Amino acid sequence: MLRMTGITKNFPGVRALDGVDFRLLPGEVHALMGENGAGKSTLIKVLTGVHTADSGSVRLDGAPVVIGSPKQAQAAGISTVYQEVNLCSNLTVAENVFIGREPYRFGRIQWKEARRRAAELLERFQLDIDPGAPLGSYSLAVRQLVAIVRAVDISAKVLVLDEPTSSLDRDEVERLFRLMRRLRDDGVAVLFVSHFLDQVFEISDRMTVLRNGRLVGEYETRALSRVELVGHMTGRVLRTLEELHAPREDVRDAIASREPVLAARGLGRKGGVAPFDLDVHPGEVVGFAGLLGSGRTEAARLLFGADGADSGTLEIGGAAAVLRTPGAAIGRGIAFCPEDRKSEGLVEDLTVGENIVLALQAARGWLRPLSASRRAELVGKYIKALNIRPGDPEMPARNLSGGNQQKVLLARWLITQPRLLILDEPTRGVDVGAKAEIQKLVVSLAGDGMGVVFISAELEEVLRISHKIEVLRDREVIAEIANEADATPERLLEIIANGVAR
Amino acid sequence: MRELTRHRLFWPAAILVVMLLANLIFTPTFFRIELKNGHLYGSLIDILLYGAPLILIALGMTMVIATGGIDLSVGATVAISGALACSIIAEQADQEAVGGVLTAVGLALGLSLVLGFWNGLLVARTGIQPIIATLILMVAGRGVAQLITDGQIITINSDPYELIGGGYLFGFPFAVLVVVVVFAATAVLIRRTALGLLLEAVGGNAEASRLVGIRARRLLVLAYVFCAFCAGIAGLMISSNIRAADGNNAGLWIELDAILAVVIGGTSLMGGRFSLAGTVLGALIIQTLSTTIYTTGVPPQITLVFKAVVVTVVCLIQSPAFRAKAFHRSRPSTPAPSEAEVPA
């Protein structure tokens, strides 16, 4: 049905896709798998005309096609439904299905006709949806179904579903899958992208795995185990591991015997992460391992009060604490570097110096400003200690590289001298040098008695610096393992893929 | 030179200078300042005097816009403040009594604070979009002003009250002195405390500010209260100047001029970084434009269009994207080193 050959796409400084071959058969559900940055979304964007490939060719039904824009992709028979549904919730279901291609007669839109045809379509897909009701009156899941119906009705050859299930609950996913199977049986090629391994194995017939912009392989889902898949995605199974310096056992025991700085019991949030227990001791680095969307970030946000927990209890420094705002957590000595530096961390308009003192100043309140000399001293000290470059405190923070922006955020919290530091993907998108610096810093902070929660998608990194590791999968903490000799990336991968050995 | 043109206040300042110079062509005596009866007179003084209410309101508006909000209700606050002050004075047996005038001023400013607090609560507590939240008071406020004045235009005859908008102190117009004091106090409040930093953080990235522990709600309320306070003072000035409270027309559309002044001064409507000095320049540009229209005798039927054209040109000159396009050919493709070395 669809064959992409030798697709290469460069972005400034990065080769996002490197000679990737990809094919879709009619009447199959095909999963596109890979870690973050593997090139999945770039490939989809090339396929749907958002990006143009630098080289390579696309053939549809055997004939070469040029896809230069999303419109051309649609005309060629390739439709996409994104995670955020791009429909108008104030219009009715029927209006949404036919918007932009309403049936006309004598220059007037035939709404009756549109409603009738929408009803037919919905019935054909066995969806119990009222075409006359406003789309906004339905849940996100139903809106997604409507978006799919619309996409399929416009052009029914290739349907691309990018992370369609990330905000759906179990029943809604089931409903979506029924529709996908139906379309498959009608001969549509469905391309499915998801971070949920269980769902991929449930719905897909075949899968293509990408890694670092290259094709790893194309596999029959039936013939592939989860461990093999995760191995293909991460490329770690066959490679010999770098030597790890797992912390010594006696050190670990000494740390574990201290009074915990933070103790969570049954802490959870509906739609976020299932209730979990966690102890973090002074001087301990606790790693959170799991794929993207596994609930790592959600768990961290509960510990910081960025989201409110709806179950469980939290003790900080031995005292019960209910965290309704981040301010409450900060007052108790907790610091949190969020995953998304741009939208949740940095204030890009402000200078490096201003960003660095922001947390301390917020804690002091606006009436007690840091004196200019004290501020210059603190900023200078941390720019030097963390080797932030360029070391100009007056430079706008937006002009710094990713690694240096991350260091600015670290400096912001280190100034407040927290008892517990939560780092969500502190080394993502950071160059190798800065990465090593950040890892070293975390180890030395823990050595000075700070508790650290360290979240990373890179298992080696987690193993290198953590004392114990919480493994998350499908928004649940499924295992806590001590970082002993038998804690290897392979073992973590296996737990992530298959759950705990039962 | 390059450094100089990059300074954020360069373009507003340059525009103001050009406008003032343009006036010199039509009115050769434009820059002359005279001392009559110990008072300063002249076109430049007039611009400052009549621009005083706008500068004040624009200062308050700057704080609100820095948080990413907007306050449409300042015009209504102007009307309410003037109406309350005048109606209190009008009821007094002796309108010349300083004590009575002070009471009126105090109550009017107090009511302004309450109005600002109301706006702030709506925005910060209920999460109503600022443009809607303040639209409520913009519309309702005119009604409140009418209630206070009973639907009449209240005229007063009180020398102490007239000092505020039309009087002189040490040779300077009193209103201009008030603006100088408010500006200085604001600058100190913003840059000597951490208020400016925290406001810019909230306006620049609200979610990051929340995660860093900034109590944004208090700051928001504070910004709206400050803005209403400035509008309250401006209301006193305007009513004092015309010796009357006109609930219908006092401060009409001044919110739009104030927003324009803030934007011309280089503060983005998206919030974040703001510039008090830029706002003052912006307000002066608008007032100079109005004065120019009067002194050069632009026919009244085309003043609005003339104003619109000038404002459009000013905004285009302010836009880096437009400048890049318009001056594209004259710009060297690589920055010349000799230019970069010239200190600002």
From TrEMBL, chain A:
Pfam families hit by this protein: ABC_tran
GO MF entries: ATP binding; ATP hydrolysis activity
A GO-annotated cellular component: plasma membrane
Gene3D superfamilies attached to this UniProt entry: P-loop containing nucleotide triphosphate hydrolases
InterPro entries in alphabetical order: AAA+_ATPase, ABC_carbohydrate_import_ATPase, ABC_transporter-like_ATP-bd, ABC_transporter-like_CS, P-loop_NTPase
Recorded topology in the membrane: Peripheral membrane protein
Highest taxon listed in the record's lineage: Bacteria
Location of the ABC transporter domain: 2-237, 251-499
CDD domains the UniProt entry points to: ABC_Carb_Monos_I, ABC_Carb_Monos_II
Chief location of this protein within or outside the cell: membrane
Keywords assigned: ATP-binding, Cell membrane, Membrane, Nucleotide-binding, Repeat, Translocase, Transport
Subcellular location as annotated: Cell membrane
The protein's name in its UniProt record: Sugar ABC transporter ATP-binding protein
Organism: Acrocarpospora corrugata
Automatic annotation (TrEMBL), chain B:
Tagged with keyword Cell membrane: yes
Superkingdom assignment: Bacteria
Gene Ontology CC terms, in alphabetical order: plasma membrane
GO molecular function: transmembrane transporter activity
Membrane topology category: Multi-pass membrane protein
Compartments (UniProt record): Cell membrane
Coiled-coil parts of chain: none
InterPro entries: ABC_transp_permease
Pfam families: BPD_transp_2
Transmembrane segments: 9-27, 47-65, 72-90, 102-124, 131-148, 168-190, 219-238, 250-269, 276-296, 302-322
Keywords: Cell membrane, Membrane, Transmembrane, Transmembrane helix
UniProt KW Nucleus keyword: no
Main location: membrane
Protein name, UniProt field: Sugar ABC transporter permease
Annotated source species: Acrocarpospora corrugata
